[in-house]
Amino acid sequence: MTTSAPGDVARARPWQSIMPPAVIHRKERPATADRRRVAAVALLVALQLAAAGLLIWSEADLAARVAFALTWGLLNFFWLVLLRRPLTAAVLSLGLIVILILLSQFKHAVLMMTATFVDVMIIDLATFSFLLAIIPGLAWKVGLALMLAIPVLLAAWRADPFRVPRGRALLGCMGCLGTLTVLSFAFPLDREDEFYPHQYVSKFVRSASVAAVDLIAHGVLEADAAGAGRLFLGQGGACDAGRKRPHIVMVFDESSFDVTMLPNVEVPADYRARFRSSDAKARSFVVEGAGGPSWYTEYNVLTGLSVRSYGRFAESVTRLATGRVKRGLPHALRECGYKTYSLYSWFGGFAGARGFQTTTGIEHFLDAKQLGSGAADTDRFYYDHAARIIAEQRDNGPVFVFVYLAVNHFPWNYRYRPDLLPGW
Predict the structure, then answer these.
(1) CB 200 within 8 Å of CB 113
(2) Tens of pLDDT along 210-238?
């Protein structure tokens, strides 16, 4: 027989002596559930505040901030339709917005333009190759980010005690989408604003609305249903088989121009001779982009066509034209027996240069990696390479070489070669 001390019964709670363990467990569960809900609400509020902080930091005007807020709502409602869990939806939405901002900042650092929806429309293997080439360890960084993100999402999924009806979430999603579309057309984007590093989210989603309408209305190209003339797709002229054809070197001198067009600029006495032909005459060549969207000029001179036909999609002209526009100068020269080369001073994946140029008739596209060029290599490096190609192919017929020079391109806040800096 077991005995107990006189005070044991007095210290015990009355209900503990008569209530079974199962009932005690049921009474303790509501307290645990309440703590879980409070923690989930606190985390959900923190995520909303983080999104608000990004809005205030990145968006400048009222229309942009409203667009950001509608985008945040659209993303959350979209994930709620699929998952019904608001905490998980907020984590996914915030992650997508952060990724978009980082990608847009990277694009601006490379192209001086922020990301638009067109970038998503035409993303390809060349784009990924370009990113992997210029960002050391990008593949490892992406893999590490995914490894860290998966446990976070699983934790949010398990910790989320709330459920939202899919019908309500769908109504919210459609409402945000409709309002965002109306806003995008009521307050159209300024094209020049794309060159400024801000409003990453609002510019992207507003461009998505406009691009969708453009694609539905008339497709990628803006063309009249009928015109007075028609584009001649045949050869530009017959090749004289009995005539010896000269080698041709076309120089794309990025951002170089006759600075004497600006007032009060002092230059050396023989400065303007650089911009004159061998007969001492200066000749102008009209293109649609120089010193900025250089790929506009690239499209002009290689195809003989205008980028204006692409409307709002003009910034992506070289990638859109890849595999589709098969005419122009290199093609015509190949018909006359020319070997065609392009000496590209940067990575071939930049703006889809490799795919575009090989489409237009460039047989041998050599970018900076294949040429073995470095950041300190000046124009002489590319001129010498062009001369070597001509010498090597002298007995194989005429050669066309497209030489792309970019050492004079901005930024001008550091000196490539201080030893070559002119005294003037």
Answers:
(1) no
(2) 788 778 777 777 766 666 666 665 555 56
